[in-house]
Amino acid sequence: MPLVHATPPRKPTTPLPRFQTGILMMFELAEIIASMSIYPYINQLVREIDITGGDDAAVGYYVGLIDSLFYLAQALTVLSWSRLSDRIGRKPVLLIGLTAACISMICFGLSTTFWSLVISRCMWGVLNGNTGVMKTVMGELTDSTNMAQGFALIPIVWSIGSFVGPLMGGMLARPQDHRPGLFTNPFWRKYPYFLPCVVSASLLLLALFILLHFLEETLSTKRRPSLTLSISGVSRGVDSDDQESFVRQNTANTSLLSLLTPAIIIPIANYAMLSFLDISFRALIPLFLSTPTHLGGMGLTPSSIGLLLAFYGIVDGLFQALFLAKIVDWVGPKRLFCVSVSCFAPLMVLFPIMSWLVHTRGVIDHAIMYALLGQLILTVTWDMAFATGLMFVTASAPAKNVLGVVNGLSQSSRSIACALGPALTTSLFAFSKKHNVLNGNAVYVVLIMLSGVLRWMGSQLPDEIQDRDD
What we know:
Helices cover 75% and strands 0% of the residues. By secondary structure, the chain is mainly α. The radius of gyration is 22 Å and the shape is globular. It starts with 17 loop residues before the first helix and ends in a 12-residue tail after the last helix.
């Protein structure tokens, strides 16, 4: 089978509604920055609240538990938020989620116990279903001709957020240590991680204001007639109102069970497994980088971790912005998905290699830098799987009127995967290091085996993206 994807002649590409898409991506960026900002310092924060009793190897258990409970809380409610958006509109649900995220970040910065950290994060998970609703809005703003362009923006924004969030969190954490002359109030010693949280909350508040005043409703039954024409008029015929009314009548009472067909389940299962492996990798990176060298880590400080993750994010974002849509058109979404997920195994292999290099050389030198560069290249390739995976999920919806439910199912599956991923991965990391299972590398072996399962699952995806406009 040739790598280059031969495509038949297609109809002209519909231009993206740039202003609305830009507002949507701005809102998504604010949420990602806030969410990612905690990772450079969360391991240190867990150490300082002394829930581990001074056992550095146990930090991974508790950090993974915080992440897992957040995603579990999200998994319990995200489908309900998506279905609610099918009834009251996308915009009200997005505004509720932004408000909850803002309050959650303030509470997280004021937390001084482990369980207050958990409650703060779970507040975001329970009351914010925006991840699924945002993908629904993107699906309603695009058609089959510009879907690749639209969904290519999501990993770009994720990469930018992955750059700004960790950079901001790492640089603003513990301001009383970095700028003692400016932050002299005892408040900053009592709440040393409040500054990055309040800055994140401010960004979320700004996004809420812009969303409230400028984002147009995309749900067909709630949007204004002018928006219906501007979004859908290019790709629909003169009978679009009658068609939409007919589809609403036939999908209003659609049950979840009727949507559980192979055409929908296979893309969602791929996306869930992809999310499990990705969140496991994201949880491993700061844990591996912050773990002391004698336990097989690199012993970096929160600010150094933030700078490294920020560099990863900006390079990833630039690549996705410049090349992702073109590569999807050239190679094809299924081939690109399969190639991307194949990069996960070598990505895992680099962790024990770096651990061995640090152990034998005693310092972080050019050899470690080359390994980190290789990991960056593999990460960039791996991340391209998300855009194509989302394209398959969105295209699997039999009609735009059930996009909210399909994306809700997808996000629920992703949340369950993400709830299991950090807890299992960080716990297995800590267990394998503490008991020297497979020389401390058991976690990487398990994840490599799971990546093989994902590669097989990717082969079950349809060869072409379904054209919902035909």
